[in-house]
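hi!! sorry for the late reply, been swamped w classes. u asked for the two structures so here they r. pasted raw, havent cleaned anything up. first the sequence of the first protein and right below it the tokens
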Amino acid sequence: MKKIAIITLFYHNYNYGGVLQAYALQKEIEKLGYNCDVISMDRQTMKMFVPEAKNKNNSYKNNFITFLTSLKNRIKNKLNSLLCINELKKKIKKFDFFIEKNIRKTAIVYTSDTISQLINKYDLFITGSDQVFSPISGRAETFLSFVPDEKGKISYAASIGADSITDEYGRFMKSFLKRFDVVSVREKGAKTIIDNLMGKDICKVVLDPTLLYQESWTNLAFPVNGITAESYVLLYFLGESDNEWNRAYSYAKTTGLKILNIPYNKMQQSY
């Protein structure tokens, strides 16, 4: 029986969509009769795509701005973590419980130095879903750079996470995508970008694994304390957006409904 490896943004990524898409894709592949593992891959050991500096002066300036922005975010996240440490611990514990119970993952956590060890363990490699092609969250490894030509390489419902890319990032993507046997994405915009980049129609738009999943999600669900069957407005935002929040508050006020928020990171549970 063929063995398949899923490369995705999974390890230590306590994100609902990230975990559920990994679960769903694994289940659907197993239903086809294959053995399938989600690879525990430490992206922190892997190099991000870094644009080339246009000139020396801009390089110093951009590096300084990047440093200040990173420092600001680290301080902000640290303060938020200290304020919400107990809530975060509970969240991580629940994520870990779900993963251990429902997802077959590799016990070994692979790094940039060790990920090539997977080559002889699997017959086919699939990258996706999630933003594995993103200039921010993607890595050469999520483009299956470590997989030799003789091994099968597929992207399933991959996302770029942007409406456009730079020429430089396009060259970076193209160097890897030309080695894929099958390329599929989950957004029409991503298909347009890739087809234009490759100069031909090579990309398919497919369902995200969470929508592809044939079973009922209610089999995994259970009641949450404090939430009743009454109607409410459910929010789940990956970042801070005043426009979306204002629209949600306006809708809730108009309809008289309570707002419940699923926190992405360090936000309060409900309002």
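now the second protein. again sequence first, tokens right under
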Amino acid sequence: MLISEFIDRTGFRPTEYYYHTQIEPEYNRSNLDKDAWCKQWKKNGGIQKAYDALCMQASNEYATVLDLEEKAKNLREENAALRSDNEDLSNTNKQLLNDRKERIDERIAMAYELLEISETYSSAELRKVVIDIIGFKAYIAYKLEHDKAIWKIDREEIIERMK
């Protein structure tokens, strides 16, 4: 029996899902003709059973919706917490970078002070420390900018690097 035939005989319009999962299999198991089966279905409370099933389905779907809403709420809260954690980490990283930059700037300032001391006392050891900190290029640039003497060891390294 088609769903349209069922509706015509009973005056009841079930959902497609309910018709195909409940009504049609029940009809197919019987030996009655369509008219007799539909009369018996109505007489045996078929309409009420269908409404009850629809109510149960709606209730289940509502419970599913509530469950999904709760999960969505939890996900939003987790996302907010993760965003907060990311902001905290970002701020921590910024602070660490600032601290590192300050330490580097202090080290470079100290290196230039050591360069001045190495010039005063002609200390090759301090020269090595300064070059390790600021690099040879910056070391030579500073000496030229500040009219410092270019030592023999400096000249030799400049020539070696130019080869």
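hope this helps!! also noticed smth abt the second:
The chain has a mean pLDDT of 92.
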